[in-house]
Structure formats: C-alpha cells, structure tokens
Design goal:
Elements (H helix, E strand, L loop, with lengths): L5 E2 L2 E2 H15 L3 H4 L2 E8 L5 E3 H14 L1 E14 L2 E12 L4 E13 L2 E9 L10
Parallel strand pairs: 3-8
Antiparallel strand pairs: 1-2, 3-4, 5-6, 6-7, 7-8
Length: 132
Amino acid sequence: MMNDQQTGGQSTTQAFMAALQQAEATGDVTALLALHAPDVTLRNLTQQTWEGEAGARAFWETYLGNFEEIRSEFTRTHEAGGLGVMEWTASGQLRGGHPVEYRGVSLIELSGGQVAAFRTYYDSAAFVVAPT
C-alpha cells in the first residue's frame, strides 16, 4: 500500500517540484493544480491568502504573470511527517525584461497525497527595479 505522501513512486514534494518546473516552462498550471487539495490555502510574503481551487489557479497564474521567463532550481528538499520542504533559487526575467535571480524556501503541508497548504518565503528585494 502506498503511503499518503507517495504518488506514482515519487513523493508528493518531488511531483510538486516537477509540476512547478513544467508550469514555468510552458505557462500551463494544470498539472500543478492537480496536486492541490480542493480546500488548499496558499500564502506568500503578501498579507493575502488564496483559498480553494480558484484561489490556487489565481495564485499560480499571478506568479507566472510576473515573469517573461522563470526557472526554479531546487537545491535541497525533504519530505516527512506530512511536510515537504524545498529550498530553491529562481532565475529569469521579469515582465519588461529586467533580469531577476532570487532564493527562497517553500513549505507544503500534505494530506492524502495532496497539497493542503503552500507557504513560500523568498528574497523580495530581488523584485525592486532601480530607476534608470
């Protein structure tokens, strides 16, 4: 029997990382959204919380909309006890062509092989574009 953090022989965290990279490469969030529970909550450094399927779609489409291109490289991951931890570096170009590179950590709370909650913490200073 598969434990609740395994999906097709890989951990939910591994599946999440692969789906995020696919979404970043293609702009299609479908595979990423399929990993989220119907009542998922998502938070970043803003005060806003996104909830449910519509909230997850809005969160990920907004994320991708910030960039002309973006690629997350995962440097360290761990999954245990219903929690997935991902340390990463993202690089690419913001809308308007300004290059960006930043680091962060994302946490996913897991339930039944799905993402029940997503939280991400990152270097927001990387998004400040100095006037020219």
